[in-house]
Write a structure and sequence with these properties.
Blueprint (H helix, E strand, L loop, with lengths): L12 H10 L30 H8 L14 H7 L9 H18 L6 H7 L1 H5 L21 H5 L6 H6 L24 H17 L38 E2 L11 E2 L10 H4 L1 E2 L1 H14 L16 H4 L7 E3 L1 H6 L9 E2 L2 H4 L8 E2 L3 H4 L2 E2 L24 E2 L9 H7 L11 H7 L3 H4 L13 H17 L1 E8 L5 E8 L14 E10 L2 E6 L2 E2 L4 E2 L14 E2 L5 E2 L1 E4 L16 E5 L9 H4 L7 E2 L2 E2 L6 H6 L1 E7 L6 E9 L3 H12 L34 H12 L15 E8 L6 E4 L5 H4 L7 E7 L4 E8 L7 E8 L6 E4 L2 H6 L5 E10 L9 E2 L3 E4 L2
Parallel strand pairs: 1-2, 12-15
Antiparallel strand pairs: 3-4, 5-6, 7-8, 9-10, 10-21, 11-12, 11-16, 11-22, 13-14, 17-18, 19-20, 22-23, 24-25, 25-28, 26-27, 26-29, 29-30, 29-31
């Protein structure tokens, strides 16, 4: 199929590809005229005006908005530390975007594939039309605040009619939707009346959404094609008029608002968390015909009038990431949801015992208010319309520990974490990096919010998995254990490039290490035994087990690589052994391209029926005999050395994956690497060295920087044989520097811990980061204690001079094992005595 009509007859898709194959030069094509990147929804320059987030923070971001326990709960405060707020300041994003632009020129003759990146990382700038040229050079001001308030709160539901009548997500109005007394349309309750007003507004907005051909996208209040079932891959449907939407019908505010069921729906999150490649989808048939590839193309239902991306959900074509789809076909994503695992649900206050939407865990309910308005209800206590819904904590953290930490390290107000090398690398300015660190709500003044967010990400990782059911036979050497996924999506999930989770197993005899599986070389900064030049060889009594490294390796027919880091050129997956969530529907998985893949082959039987139902991976087999203890540790690393080296070399032009012979260019392409010479990349070319130096420094390989968790593998969970009752220590309330730094009385620390009667817990306060001089130490014993609380005595508090940093941590040790099990400790936090 050739869609020459979409290019005004001047150049067909096939001809465009041939031009790309035969010439090193490239010709710009306005993104708005490019059929390859077009996806449904509100388009750039259509009139949506997104407000500066500072306007929202005036009421929703005040640090004085506290919950009854005295902790900050202001939505804007938590959002400022989130990865969403920093989406346009993410160093990996910029390096990846530069490579994507070069790859796009190599494959289709222009850099427009970068539009995939900009629409989710720069929603304000993208909607305003500043995404063309597609190198972020026109982004400005609060564009750099990433996914900020209006980017979410002006979004409307493209499936508004079926959400409203209860056929899309259910009609349990009083239960699932928490609308007290509502029995559905016509009931006259405040929630229903408000929902009817939103329905009318959405129907008006739908009339303005067009296909690429100019015809209507909506037919009878529904998308034209029944195969279009969710708005993934950054397909925004945005209001024109500034009237925010949120999930409560009983709000009390100074501005008008729409009640939006969509904002408490699981489907809300699909917009940016089901990502696919529209370029390959729309060019699929032409690529196959022109180059003899065997890409899996979706059939055209339109007779050539409409784009493939307008006919199908993004989850149906060319996998980039599928976090929402993984959730959707899990037990949690079914109507009514499912109970969370016992290892997970008691770790929050209030406990998260049930989940039916992404927001249940990533924007959990807390007691509090969403704004400073005195008349606003304290949720859920003062709400009669939504009696079961707390205030959504705008946390939105996943497992990205290092991004908020590294950004926080540019704030010199916090000398313990300030890093002048990180500051220098990230503040080179927009002429060098495109990134403007001083635009919008600058991280250089918000270290407290970012450090708190980094700590919350660690907590999320600790909750995400459990190792259990460990058995070992010292005579035969047989070892078995289970890696339990406690999340609602695959473990791990999200952007696949350079992201991995791995099991490390150490066997000891007589106190000596006798064997290790998947050893990590901290001096080299990577796993040993990989087929990569930077990976050190395995030593004696060491083995690498690929099945215990959970990850995605994309494959590219375009470059001819079985395993590739070129995400915009990835045509399928070569490896995907990530652990499914509970109740994973393997039959439905193939259509959304999320079934397991083993060596390039779809492998639905990779996990057993019991493993899919339970959401775990049972591991068993021969191991080393004769050990008297086994330690099994699950690590997470969000950014591998291999990926950083790829980005560096692709940007600096020292790689060869594009220049050697490929299916698209059998004679090779000696002119492929243009980032260092083409003016289009002038403000991106420095990212090659910058991303490498940033990673190298924050791994601690230069001997100058801290070893930042998730750049360095982060311990998620651990188990041992013989078993120890001590498993985790989890902070119920993350350390909130804004509260701690404004204290007028001694703080109370609250944490939970899992352990037996022999486990002793301690909270330590010290004036030294090395804990060489304790201010105080308090110990307690407990069995499965859900809530341990310790307050610093007033006399001790008064003895600490004002302006003095106080360091604190929680420790645990098993006193029932001889010798006593080494201390298990949380990270160290600090605050300044006011």
């Amino acid at each position: 199929m050739t869609k020459s009509r979409f290019l005004g007859g001047a150049l067909s898709v096939a001809a465009l590809l041939l031009v790309a194959a035969g010439a090193a030069a490239w010709t710009p094509l306005p993104v708005v005229d490019d059929p390859l990147v077009r996806m449904p929804g509100t388009q750039p320059g259509q009139g949506t005006m997104i407000m500066d987030p500072q306007m929202c923070l005036n009421c929703h971001g005040d640090e004085n908005i506290l919950n009854p326990e005295g902790y900050v709960m202001a939505p804007g405060y938590f959002w400022q530390g989130s990865v969403m707020a920093q989406a346009a300041r993410d160093p990996l994003f910029y390096a990846c975007m530069a490579v994507a632009g070069q790859d796009s020129i190599w494959a289709v003759g222009n850099p427009n594939a970068v539009d995939i990146c900009e629409r989710c990382h720069f929603p304000q700038g993208w909607l305003a039309g500043r995404s063309d040229p597609p190198n972020a050079s026109l982004m400005t001001g609060t564009d750099f605040d990433g996914v900020h308030c209006d980017a979410c709160h002006m979004k409307w539901d493209p499936f508004f009619a079926t959400t409203f009548d209860g056929t899309r997500e259910g009609s349990d109005w009083a239960g699932y939707w928490d609308e007290a007394g509502n029995t559905g349309p016509g009931s006259g309750t405040p929630s229903q009346v408000a929902a009817e007003a939103t329905l009318a507004e959405d129907a008006l907005l739908a009339a303005g959404i067009k296909l690429f051909s100019g015809l209507d996208f909506f037919i009878g209040d529904a998308p034209k094609y029944a195969t279009y079932t969710e708005d993934g891959a950054g397909q925004y449907f945005m209001a024109m008029m500034h009237r925010p939407r949120a999930s409560f019908a009983d709000t009390k505010s100074d501005h008008p608002a729409f009640y939006s069921r969509h904002h408490k729906s699981k489907y809300f999150c699909s917009t940016c968390h089901n990502v696919s490649n529209p370029v390959l989808a729309n060019a699929c048939e032409d690529l196959n015909a022109t180059y003899g590839l065997s890409l899996s193309c979706l059939p055209d239902q339109s007779g050539g009038t409409d784009l493939i991306t307008e006919q199908y959900s993004a989850s149906r074509y060319f996998h980039v990431e599928r976090t929402f789809a993984e959730f959707e076909i899990s037990a949690y994503g079914q109507q009514g949801g499912a109970a969370t695992n016992p290892e997970f649900h008691t770790k929050f206050d209030p406990p998260i015992t049930w989940a039916s939407s992404c927001q249940d865990c990533h924007m959990r309910n807390i007691v509090g208010k969403g704004c400073e308005e005195l008349a606003a209800p304290l949720r859920p206590i003062e709400s009669t319309e939504h009696p079961n819904s707390g205030a959504p904590m705008h946390d939105m953290m996943g497992g990205n520990v290092w991004l908020p930490y590294v950004l926080a390290s540019t704030d010199d107000h916090f000398p313990d974490t300030y890093d002048p090398i990180n500051f220098a690398l990230l503040t080179q300015g927009p002429l060098a990096l495109t990134l403007d660190m001083y635009a919008g709500l600058s991280p250089t003044d918000r270290g407290d919010r970012l450090l708190a967010a980094s700590d919350r990400a660690k907590d999320q990782l600790k909750l995400a998995a459990t190792i259990k059911n460990v058995t070992y036979n010292p005579t035969t050497g047989n070892l078995a254990f289970r890696v339990q996924n406690n999340t609602g999506h695959k473990l791990i999930s999200g952007f696949p490039e350079g992201r991995r989770m791995f099991v490390n197993i150490k066997a000891y005899a007589g106190g000596s290490l006798i064997h290790e599986v998947n050893p990590y070389d901290y001096a080299a900064g990577t796993l040993k035994g990989l087929s990569h030049p930077s990976s050190p060889p395995l030593g004696p009594n060491e083995t690498y087990v690929d099945a215990l490294v959970y990850e995605v390796h994309p494959k590219s027919q375009l470059t001819g690589e079985d395993e590739t880091f070129h995400f915009v050129l990835a045509s399928e997956r070569y490896k995907d052994n990530r652990i499914p969530p509970k109740g994973f529907d393997i039959v439905a998985a193939a259509e959304q391209l999320i079934e397991p893949v083993d060596h390039g082959v779809s492998s639905p039987a990779y996990f057993t029926a019991a493993e899919y139902a339970g959401g775990y991976d049972d591991v068993s087999g021969p191991f080393v005999p004769g050990a008297d203890s086994i330690v099994i540790t699950l690590y997470y690393q969000s950014t591998s050395r291999e990926y950083i080296e790829f980005l560096r070399d692709e940007i600096n032009g020292t790689a060869d994956t594009l220049s050697r012979p490929t299916p698209l260019k059998p004679g090779g392409d000696p002119g492929a690497y243009i980032i260092q010479t083409d003016p289009f990349f002038g403000a991106l070319k420095a990212w090659g060295d910058t991303i490498w130096e940033l990673w190298f420094h924050n791994h601690g390989l230069d001997g100058l920087g801290a070893s930042v968790p998730t750049i360095v593998p982060f311990q998620m969970t651990q188990a041992q044989f013989p078993a120890s009752p001590l498993t985790t220590i989890h902070l119920l309330y993350p350390p909130d520097l804004a509260v701690l730094n404004a204290l007028t009385s001694p703080p109370t620390f609250v944490w939970s811990a899992d352990g037996g009667a022999n486990v002793k817990y301690a909270i330590d306060f010290s004036l030294s980061a090395a804990f060489t001089n304790y201010v105080s130490s308090y110990e307690t014993l407990g069995v499965q204690l859900p809530n341990i609380s310790v307050t610093i005595p007033q006399a001790i508090w008064d003895s600490v001079p004002t302006g003095t940093p106080i360091y604190w941590r929680v420790r645990g040790a098993d006193t029932g094992v001889t010798p006593i099990t080494p201390v298990f400790s949380t990270e160290t936090w600090s605050f300044v005595r006011p």
